[in-house]
Write a structure and sequence with these properties.
Length: about 325
Amino acid sequence: MLRRPRRNRKSESIRSAVRETHLSPTNLVSPLFLLPGENKSEVIKSLPVASRMTLDFMLKEMEASIEVGIDKFMIFPAIPEEHKDKVATYSYAEDNFYLRAAELIKKEIPEAVLISDVAMDPYSTDGHDGLVIGKEIVNDQTLPILDRMAVAQAQAGFDIIGPSDMMDGRIESIRTAMDEAGYYNTSIMSYCAKYASGFYGPFRDALDSAPGFGDKKTYQMDPANKNEALIEAELDTQEGADFLMVKPALNYLDVIHMLNSEFDLPIAAYHVSGECAMLLAACEKGWLDYDVVMPETLLSIKRAGADVIMTYLAKSFGEFYHR
Ligand code: PBG
């Protein structure tokens, strides 16, 4: 036998010399759920690694994460019912606790990189990502609302704006609005290929943001489609996105791989709440070994071609990495 691939696997030292993919905490983003008020932290039952917490707890969580090399955070607000309306007015209100929290975090922990969420669903009585007229989620009338939301977030100090709404034309619309307001240095991470997935369940529990009627299939992508992701990526690139995101990650590794091969922009992938919950549940039952499958799972997303990975396991990976 002339070729014996096993020779390159014979010791950890050789294996690590020929290792093709490396995952480090710098690739990871930790998603966090913000509650108004203070001194509250509630574990999410369907996603027990994550909690909904008030700003005081969030600052501590961020400091602990930074200690293990996780310095990028994606923040989602849990908006009380009384602040919701048809047109998401509260999303850019002066007294919005989410915006004021971002401002304070950037003052207290300037090295933290903050990524926002732009979509109407947390603020809307309809629970949809766009404006609802009759039974339709209307595209073009949603754009000016998203623009105001994005500019308010840029003004509050978010480093990267994350439009997750899947309306057509929103990247160009937000880019133009932010540039006109002087926020030309604020980046856009587009939720570019976001699928109408069943794996967002625990997230919707955390924010109580399930759609009031119907589903999100007229704006989020059909899980069967791949070429359509090329169309979305082409448009978002032309419209000025800085990152292209694929979401969910694990069931869509082929899409991550394809966008990484076809486009020059950095690729982000969102290891979503339901994907994480499955892993945690199996480990809790003792069916899988967390210390083995957790890094293996995140590595597979990097190997597929993602540079940036949003995952509820970010801090846990950081702790594991420094062990
Ligand atoms: C809302 C939004 C969702 C997620 C991120 N932003 C839910 C949805 O589209 O219904 C899901 C993230 C996760 O499941 O971890 N626009």
